[in-house]
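Box 3.1. Reading complex inputs
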Amino acid sequence: MKKLLYVLSLLLIASMVLTACGGGQPPATEPPAETQPPAETEPPAETEPPAADKVQLRWFVGLGTGTDPAQLPAQEKAVADFNADHPDIELVLEVVPFDSARDTLATQIAAGAGPDIVGPVGWGGSNAFYGQWLDMTPYIESSGFDTSVYDPALIDFYQTEEGQVGLPFLVFPAAIYYVPSMFDEAGLAYPPKAYGDKYTLDGEEVDWNWETFTEVAKRLTVDTNGANATDDGFDPAQMVQVGYANQWQTHVAYQAAYVSGSADIVSGDAPGSYESAMPDSWKSANQLVYDGMWGDQPFMATGPLAAAPEFGNGNLFNSGKAAMAMTPLWYTCCLDAFRDAGFEFDAGALPVGADGQPHGRVDADTIRIWKGTPNPEAAFAALSYLIGPEGTQTLVVGSDEVAAAYSGLPANPEFQQSYIDGLLERYPFTTAETWDVFKAGLAYPDNPSAEQWQPNWNEAWARQQTFFDLLQNTPPDQLDFDAEWQKLVDDLNAIYAK
Amino acid sequence: MFEQLSNFRNSLPSLKSFRSLTPLGRRELRQGMWFLSPWIFGFLAFTLIPIIATFFFTFINLKITDGIASTPKWVGFDNYVDLWNDNQAGVNPKTWFQGGTPGALWVTLAFGLIALPVGIFVPLGIAVLMNNKHLKGPNFFRSMFYMPFIVPFVAAVFLWGGMLNSQTGWINRFLVEVLNMSKDSVPLWANSGAGEWGWIYATYTIMGIWGIGNAMLIFIAGLQNVPTELYDAAKVDGANGWQTFWKVTFPMISPVIFYNLTLSIVGLFQYFLVPLVVNQGTGRPGGFTMFYNLYLYRNFFLFQNMSYGATLAWVLFVLILAVTILLFWSAKYWVYYAGESHS
């Protein structure tokens, strides 16, 4: 019995140690995976593809969109079509619930058993796995993949210090969503539809910049007595409508990207040398937003107000209590209640910053290849199929047989009109000009992305989010903005140094 | 407690007793083990091995996001040293309020000083009232006080969050519009600044009172088990109401108080849900809502720093164990078990 217990204990400890340390994965500096010795990366015999000459690929879905049951048929059709066209490759779809996808992928990669391709995934999800994505440059060149169909700015978007880690697939340019009836009621002109156009305020043509924007937003902010934020006697504690909602763009970097433009968030090129590089203009941008919430003439909802049920529990523009919202195209996901309540929206160009240039944001989802894949060429073939014309048709445009899986503007202009037609049908009060504003926003991506990589990304991102949460929820008599900003910088430096 | 443990140990079968089993007994044992094997497997796979694994993690630098590019290395006690020096965790009292943050352990203990007495004495007080012979319709009141406990706690927290919303909540509206308090003088509740952290803990405590129905019920059961002849004797001796409560009721229900106190202290160290929902788990303002368990959660699941999260978890376990042992040790001075022999 004693011996049995001894052996059992040893087995337990050994299994634990092996689980914890098992699975060597490629170091961040390792060359593309095709140079890896096949013996280390080949799947075990029992998971060999059914046919000896078939390469089996795993497509991991879950870090972003794609996990809803309604999205499965189109994804399964894309897989079936690809497999039919490629008899030498078998693509297998793996859908993991969003809530557990990060942990699942991290565990798989840590065990050296990561999937071949991953996506759709945005910058945030990708940065959580920084260093794990394959530089596709050699495969783009060897396969002759046509990148000329894309806006060069979008190709550059995925060019990082690790190489070309992605190709454009779905893009979500930002614009101003606004409620025309609220502008009519306030006697204000609508925001301009074209970048560079002037705005007419009090009969005069003025630049559509942040100064003008905040003035308009103040006049659109109304209390229970019908007074707007610029009127004497306006009661900020009794607001029933706000001029501007930073709809789900509640992060230091998002607001800075809109107001003052994107910038490198961190300096340094090696552990130990990293430091926060947030420019002073970012501090000013966040101060502007803070004043918009807590200033004498507020035009935004504070945290408590935005969280109130009558203000949509955070989905503020959808509640019909905000005249303008600045957010990417994906927000069309969440405006059905707004439409069904009889509201209408239109879109306007983003204001220009202090440097006279418009500063936009472009969120983007794409599919990536795991650096440790034993079959990079086959993985690139699958990826280029999924984000190429055939995949885009099935996954984004859809057909009469199978509805589209993803909602986003295809980066390939050939398919953009089909997507826009769907939006026109969904929101019949909009016009082609409405969506042209978004398309024009593609020329103003936040490059580097507001969601750019930082050392210790998860913790650094959370710290910045905490700062913005503090701004939203703390009145000026209880917050020293300068001190809190400095604390943010100090904390970030400490996080980068970990 | 040590007596109980000793009794428990003596009641366990010895190896010798296994050896002396008859063939029938051995067969029955085998069959019994066979039927138990799913549970044993589940226990090993999902409880014991993960527990051992997390202990092992505390000695390596496993971080499954940024760290996945490299194999975890053995770091010895580095994680424990880091935790000792981590002012956000606050395990070392000397780090409290360093870097402008009180420290998660300080937050947990400070909140406990407010929430624990309330969490024990309010349900006890209500239970005493519910047990009063002059109360009309006691079952109705008991049901009413218990009913909130049935509501899922997350739903209750959202509900209270709406009621205590500093700008739109009806409590502040009542204070301003009915009681004519000035808008600047009403509390901001969970949105209070770092200088008014007491209001935040008060808000959390109020939300906690919502769920005292279960503790109240346990106290009522304890009160109803107090022999009535003791009250009769106290009455004959001329004891007043307070003396009767303090000299008769309290000692007799002290095991129930002890039970509730133990659970409350364990619950305090695991406090998590309310700050996560109400203050978005950010620690706002200034770290005053960064409870120890919340900090642990963020390290494990947000930052995916498995080794540091595991270290926090093991230190939490040791803290709870130490406090529980202290509590059990103190029991001999204030907990009275009727019929228990004292040497």
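In summary: The first helix of chain A runs from residue 2 to 21.
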